[in-house]
Write a structure and sequence with these properties.
The protein is α/β, with parallel strands linked by helices. α3 (150-170) runs parallel beside α6. The longest helix is centred in the middle third of the chain and has 21 residues, at 150-170. The protein is globular. The chain has helices spanning 39-50, 80-95, 150-170, 184-189, 204-207, 209-222, 247-260, 284-291, 305-313, 324-328, 332-338, 356-368, and strands spanning 10-12, 15-17, 21-23, 55-62, 99-105, 121-122, 146-147, 175-178, 228-233, 265-269, 296-299, 319-322. It has a single domain (4-340), classed as TIM Barrel. The model has no long low-confidence stretch (mean pLDDT 96). The chain is built from twelve helices and twelve strands. 35% of the residues lie in helices and 14% in strands.
Length: 369
């Protein structure tokens, strides 16, 4: 059997997982317009658990009814009705033998569809690079954001904490805080999007402050014994090639600071997770293992089982998260275990929209052909 080490049980804090296969968070914009999870979403997530993934991480879930929503038809945990709509999703994953973590996300300055606010807010009033993503119903450049006030920063922190508590009430097995890919927490971390002159801007440790405060507030809300993770990246959905200016020195500070906060794991994501983070030397996941003190999930083009297993065998990661591979093969772990062929990723599943209705239509057409 290939990749046998990925079928070993593993712990994420107090959460015992059957294996090291993880479904990465993937935005599917398939909730109702008011942010409630649907029966189709419940089937989608349960299929991964039935296919052998030990852990499923949801798509990014918006946390408040102010500035956190990033996309129309994105699910939320900003209201009790949204919490209740997630219960069947969680129950379906559990019934199939898996565990499920809710990823909590504040889009900040790169919000391109918010039913609650007409403007976007970020750390600073800085025009962001790139253009909105059409497969998430966006068009043209990102809006010029407004700089968040201290009161709005506090409200955002409170939103994460309240959403985390709702996640626990809905039966989720943990939460993951989205500090990657150019969303709000990553905007505060990044120099060119954070030009603040108060305690949330300037030196790297101050740009990390919001992330640490969110972790602390979430831990206070959910209490001990409920897993809390944190996702980190260099590249962003609107700035794919971004690298930390301080290279490994920055990585050391970031991973030490985050893992010193009350989290249970780090989740690193890069385009190719095994590649050096800074041109040469260790990968970002390996640096998280070197300088952090919690388990690490690695994500990024790890569709080759041998390559994924190699990262675990070399001590560069504890778990492996698949995105495109999981979309193509909801039963990826079972296929690998049984030596069955793996389907190649079909980009039409995400075009013209990256939602479940489009994916169902494409698969139906393929089946008829």
């Amino acid at each position: 059997m290939k990749a046998s080490n990925l079928f070993e049980p593993v712990d994420l804090g107090p959460l015992r997982l059957a294996n090291r296969w993880v479904v990465a968070p993937m935005t599917r914009v398939s909730a109702t317009i008011d942010g409630q999870a649907t029966p189709r979403m419940a089937r989608y997530y349960a299929d991964f658990a039935a296919g052998g993934f030990g852990l499923v991480i949801t798509e990014g879930i918006y946390t408040d009814r102010a500035y956190s929503q990033g996309y129309l038809f994105q699910p939320g945990l900003a209201a009790d009705a949204q919490r209740d709509a997630w219960r069947p999703v969680v129950a379906g994953v559990h019934a199939a033998g898996g565990r499920i973590v809710a990823q909590l996300m504040h889009a900040g300055a790169i919000s391109q569809g918010n039913a609650h606010r007409a403007v976007a807010k970020g750390p600073s009033a800085v025009q962001l690079a790139g253009v909105q993503m059409s497969f998430y119903r966006g068009e043209g450049p990102y809006r010029m954001p407004e700089a968040m006030t201290l009161a709005e920063i506090t409200a955002a922190i409170d939103g994460f904490a309240a959403a985390a508590l709702r996640a626990r009430e809905a039966g989720f097995d943990g939460v993951e805080l989205h500090g990657a890919n150019g969303y709000l927490l990553d905007q505060f971390l990044t120099e060119h999007t954070n030009r603040r002159e108060d305690g949330y801007g300037g030196a790297l440790v101050q740009r990390l402050r919001l992330g640490v405060e969110v972790i602390t507030a979430v831990r206070e809300a959910v209490g001990a014994g409920f897993p809390v993770g944190y996702r980190v990246s260099q590249g962003k959905v609107n700035d794919f090639g971004h690298k930390w200016r301080g290279a490994e020195a920055d990585a050391a500070l970031v991973f030490r600071a985050l893992s010193a906060a009350p989290i249970d794991y780090l989740h690193t994501t890069e385009f190719e997770a095994w590649q050096p983070a800074f041109g040469e030397g260790p990968s970002l996941a390996a640096l998280a293992r070197r300088y952090g003190s919690v388990p690490v999930i690695a994500n990024g083009s790890l569709h080759d089982p041998a390559r994924a297993a190699g990262m675990v065998a070399r001590g560069e990661a504890d778990l492996i998260a698949l995105g495109r591979g999981a979309l193509s093969n909801a039963d990826w772990p079972r296929r690998v275990r049984d030596g069955l062929p793996l389907e190649e990723f079909d980009r039409t599943l995400l075009s013209p929209l990256a939602d479940l209705a489009n994916a169902d239509l494409r698969r139906a057409r393929t089946a008829r052909a």
